[in-house]
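Protocol step 4 of 6: record predicted structures for both targets in the notebook before any analysis. Target 1:
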Amino acid sequence: MDRNDRAYDKAYDKEDVLERITRNNSAICLIDHQVGLLIGVHDITVAELKHNAVGLAKAAKILGMPTIASTTAKDDLWGPTFPELVAVLDTKKYPIIDRMTMNAWDDPHFVKAVEATGRTHLLFAGVTLQVCAALPAYSALAAGYKSYVVVDAPGVLSATNRQVGIARIQQAGVIPVDYFSIVCEIMATNADPSANEVYAALDLDFATVMGQFSEAMTSKTK
């Protein structure tokens, strides 16, 4: 059995599949959300990409999840992380890691930062999906982590890139998710005291209404 077979079996081991993702066992990895790379995004609008990535980061912060962010060739090629995202990151506790490797997992500083979180479920998003998000997700899976790609918080060069990228992610045994549903899964209950704040961070019209309803119901039980 080669390494890829072991990774596949690891991904589909029954106990691992049944283990629920929670705020206590998961971390966010945001890779290369850089101003220069946003120019190449054509499958969704840059505004939508920013909205989703920021919403994911905000919700993770509220839920107490670590967020490890990384850039590639920041000073040489692609520039810094876009400022709206930087504004919601805890860069004092988790400094943004710049590197030169295509695959963030090939950078020892990035891997060390992930290992330091002690989390076993990793959610990756990046620009682009099939390179910046997917490559470290494959490597994390091979290293024994439960690995996810948040498919609506990256961007790609074309619809074909997205289609092929998601197909390869699934074939590799990485789990594709969207930012709204995975945050709801992690939060787990509308009785959570932070539910209204989480829904506000996700910044979707119906999510805001859900948060207001949750707050009202929670108040009634006090």
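Target 2:
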Amino acid sequence: MGKKSVAIKLSIKPKYRMNNTDTKYNGWTNYATWRVNLEIFDGGEFSNMAACEMREFVEELIESQTPEGLARDYAMAFLDDVDWMEIREHYEELATA
């Protein structure tokens, strides 16, 4: 008698994948957008900043407070998932409310 071969298909789904635009988080586009807003912008007056200025502000903050290396690289890469326009629009709406 011959041996039978059985193929097993494994599916591993991570809890969070960067660049996953289908993931909502606490009413925000994704975790990165929610987290950056919460940790950096929440409670401030940012209605006069453009989305690109917001990103530059955060990049400069990270560069000034984080030594060069892996942690800074991860922090900077995290910013690629942030929906900067959503944050901008949020503060614009707060200013007109």
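Step 5 preliminary note on target 2. Residues 32-96 form one domain. Residues 47 and 87 are 10 Å apart (CA to CA).
Proceed to step 6 after PI sign-off.
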